[in-house]
Every structure is written in C-alpha cells, then in structure tokens.
Amino acid sequence: MKLSRIFLMILMTVVIKLCLSGCNKNTERAIRNCKIMSLIAGSNVYVFTYNSDGKLNSFIGSTTNKLTYAGNTITITSSSGGTIFTVTTVTLNSNGLANNVSVTDAAGVKLSNTLYEYNGTELSKSTVTNGFGGAAIVTTYTWKGGNMISSQTGTNVTTFDYFNDIPAQQGDVWHVVNLQMGYELYRTKNALKMMEASGVILSNTYKFDAAGRIVGIIDISRGLPTEVNFLYQCR
Hints:
By secondary structure, this protein is α+β, with helices and mostly antiparallel strands.
C-alpha cells in the first residue's frame, strides 16, 4: 500500500508537469495563430487584413494601404476614394528587415528615399534623402542587450527604456509601429517601457488578456494618458 501511494504521487507529479508543459505550448501556439485585426485609439480606428500566408495584406485608417509582395520587395499603395496618393517600394534584406524604402507620388515622381543599415538585426543607421533636393537626414541608433536604447539625428537624442520581464511581442509599441508602416524596422528583445526626447517623457503600460496577449497600451505623456486597444482574430 505504501509503495502504491509513492507510485501514485510520482505519477501525479509527472502528469501535472506534462499538463503544464502542454498547456503552455497550447497557449503559445494560440497566441502565434492570432493576428491584430483592428487598433482603436479614441475615435481613430485602423483595420488590418492578412493574406493566406499570414502576411499583412492591407491596413486602413484615414487612407487605404494595400500591400503586394514580389520576392524581397513589398509595394504599398496608399489611396482614398480611388485616388492614389503615394506608392512605397520596400526592399527587404536577408533578415526580412527594410533595407531601402522609396516613396513616389501617383505619377512616379520620387518624394523620398531612405536607406537603412543594420548590425545583424539591429538598426544602426538611416539616411533620408528628399526627392526635391536638400541635405540628407542621417540618424544613428545605439543598442544594448538586444534593445535599441537611443537614436540621434544631428544634436537631437531620443532615449528608450524597456521592461525586463516583458518580451517583445505582437501588440507592443515597436510591433505596432512596424505594423502601421507595413514593414519591419525594429526587432527588439523586450517591450518598450519609456522614451524621452527633448525632456518630454512618454511611458507605456500594457494590458493583457487571459491568454497572455497584449490587448492595450496606455501611454502617458505630460501627465495625460492615451489608450490604444487591439482586437484579435485567431485561427
């Protein structure tokens, strides 16, 4: 009888461990199979659609932005009411990050071109040239521990801080920035906590649902909160 109890306790321990492992994997799998379908910020609503490969197909806010893919190139056509405003051509590097972004108007006149340079997957430098001339705008970026901690354009410096206990994921600030551009520039290790520029601090807190997804961001700047919420669709 004593042996049976010991065996039963061992068996229960193994089952519990397997269950927890399986539950965690199921939760992770469920999160991976979910996509942000809409972003609500006050009266502003952005809607996102995806193709059968799970890639962003369009994002709609004040304009409709449709994406097409060809090899390592993304073309983003921005329009409203059938009128095309801009066409953005994005060339991706071997890591799937934007290497060059060229913007033209509907007639094909170049408005701007931005060249991005990386150290591995860490953005190190961007050079923006205006299609109508003028000096290029160069920004350099500094990273530490897998996170971008500062950017500098001329004498203007912006610093960034991160949550050590919240990994970068869908719904964090940099993910939303990438999503609203239609291509990826920033691939950090952790979720952004705070940024400071010219003495102004913007702090972020995240809201999570029971599945562990980020469903909202509360930004506070100069004591004023702004809330952004997300709606997901899961496969």
